Amino acid sequence: xxxxxxxxxxxxxxxxxxxxxxxxxxxxxxxxxxxxxxxxxxxxxxxxxxxxxxxxxxxxxxxxxxxxxxxxxxxxxxxxxxxxxxxxxxxxxxxxxxxxxxxxxxxxxxxxxxxxxxxxxxxxxxxxxxxxxxxxxxxxxxxxxxxxxxxxxxxxxxxxxxxxxxxxxxxxxxxxxxxxxxxxxxxxxxxxxxxxxxxxxxxxxxxxxxxxxxxxxxxxxxxxxxxxxxxxxxxxxxxxxxxxxxxxxxxxxxxxxxxxxxxxxxxxxxxxxxxxxxxxxxxxxxxxxxxxxxxxxxxxxxxxxxxxxxxxxxxxxxxxxxxxxxxxxxxxx
Length: 333
Fold this sequence. Notes:
By secondary structure, the chain is of the alpha+beta class. It has helices at 13-37, 39-48, 57-79, 207-214, 254-275, 283-309, and strands spanning 8-9, 84-86, 91-92, 97-103, 113-126, 132-146, 149-151, 155-162, 177-187, 194-200, 202-203, 223-224, 236-239, 243-248, 310-317, 320-327.
């Protein structure tokens, strides 16, 4: 939970790029240690079973992690800390969440900024086999596009205001099931874009405080039309007899869905070329491997289709939170 004694909120960018460097170092160290120490055994394994060619991807994954770490490091040193200054602090659920971000000279070419405020439920999911994983679920989201303003001689400032509904939960302490508020700020720029997440302290204020702030003047940057709104990323909010319903349209995770579909297709092509020559003298073994890889590729492709074509309805009531997903297969007809 963000520190409530200050209205200055920092992102986790510095921590994230160090974690990425640590992961990249461990992955590459293990991969290249295995290649150097077991080079002959690896080549022999390739000759005996072509399925081991999948391990050729490991050095490329290591290279990819290094590239991501370099990008995150360059972004950090390009923009610096750039904290969010909240006013009022904490933000108000049922009132307003407002403040500003001051950017350095490196962001002077910014034409627009896309800000998204989300109320997120973070919880531990436990499966039937006893395994547990941390999951997040957005129960409310609002998104605005604003025009950055010149501040001083060389800097740029973003002034923002959100008005979250009063029926949403405040920021809670971390536990197995808690709520948090996240502000994402994205600014397209030449070279490296500005893209950071901030966890904001939000509270339910007294009615007197809310009324007072309604008459207070809030400085905001000029709002501009969205040029890059993700389909279904902003919910339609409806009041029902049971509580409040949030409807998210299809196409919420378009980029990830397309990546998964392409990976499934690539896996199918790779499996076919690997085992095609073995079908003549090892028909049963090669056929089983092709069927196995084909099944995985088909499952990945269908998962991508499902991610593209499903909508999500979340109903928040006194009985809890209920989810309902609907698949729109007519999009592909």
